[in-house]
Every structure is written in C-alpha cells, then in structure tokens.
Amino acid sequence: MAKQLLLVRHGKSDWGNLDLKDFDRPLNKRGKENAPEMAERLINRGFKIDQIVSSPAKRAKSTAKYFAEAYNIDQIYFEESIYEANTKTLLKVVNGLNDSANEVVMFGHNPGFTDFSNELCDADIYNIPTAGMVLISFPFDSWQMVSKGTGEVVFFDYPKNSDEI
User: Fold this and answer.
1) Across-strand partners of 78?
2) What's the whole-model pTM score?
3) CB count, 10 Å around CB of 72?
4) Helix, strand, or coil (residue 1)
5) Strand partners, 4
6) φ and ψ of 164, to 5 deg
7) What value, to the nearest 5°, has the Cα angle with vertex 84 and ends 108 and 128?
C-alpha cells in the first residue's frame, strides 16, 4: 500500500518570555486556535492517521496533542532528532518508520520542514507557515524507499489559506 506523510509545522509560538530556551517556547493564543482548526480541516478531508511522530519541543508537542485529541489517538512518538533537523536527518527519521503505518503525521519545525517538502517532491513551496501542513504521497510499500524526488504533493494547507474545503 502507498505511504502518505503529512508534515505539520508547529503552531505559532510565544516569544514573550526571553528567559525561555527556544525548545521550551509554548504556543501563543493564535497557535492554540490554529492547531485544532487545522486538525478539523484534516478530518474534513477524510485523512486517516496511523501514527503521530513529533519533535519533543514544547510548541511541536502541543500542536501534535491537538491533532491526537481530534483523532482520539493516545500515543505520540517523540523523536528528538526532528528538533532543528535538516533534510538528511528528517529523511533518516522517515526511512526508519514502521511499515505497518501507512499514514504518518510528523510535527516539527522550519526551515527543515519546508526544505524537506521541496526535496521529497521537487515542489516549490516557499514557506510552510505555522500550523501549515503538506501531505506527500509515495508509491511504495516501505518507508525505506522514500528518497529525494519520490513523493508527490497531495495538498498544502495553512491557517490563512482561503481555499480550505
């Protein structure tokens, strides 16, 4: 069965506390509104989720939890290497996914996620905004087969997108 990878950039984060490390920044008000809105859009598209993988950074973790709640999913896998990851590191994470999961949602950060989307699909996405999501389809039965240029963008959506369904 073909594989589908949904890359979701974390929701808008709070820069108000300069004492916080980047890793510990929480979602701000807009981030807390956009994350459940985007999860609802995903449900409305009929997208199923087999597995959720997330950066352990607070803003990514919080965004992932909104999606998990919307889908009644109990388990989120936290992968430390997603935080501050480049395309090579992200590909390693994807290649290591369990093949029993066909629809995987990964929560993380820019610039890595935008670069990764473009590399996987030969796409021309300038920037994945906060809470933005890109669904990429692969014609493989195994995540190990995923490599540069092997995917196809199914959709690209983000909170301010007026083309929502």
Assistant:
1) 54
2) 0.95
3) 7
4) coil
5) 103, 137
6) -60, 150
7) 45
- Parallel, antiparallel or unpaired: strands 3-9 and 103-108: parallel
Nearest to 56 by CA among 94, 102, 100, 25: 25
**How many CB atoms lie under 10 A from the CB of residue 55?**
26
**CB atoms near residue 69 (< 10 Å):** 12
* 9 assigned to a ligand binding site: no
Cis peptide before 129 (omega within 30 of 0): no
Q: pLDDT value at position 163?
A: 58
Contacts of 36 (CB under 8 A, 6+ apart): 66, 69, 70
**Spatial CA neighbour of 112 closest among 92, 136, 128:** 128
Retrieve residue 23's tokens: 């890793």
Q: Tens of pLDDT along 111-142?
A: 999 999 999 998 899 999 999 999 999 999 99
CATH, range 7-157: 3.40.50.1240
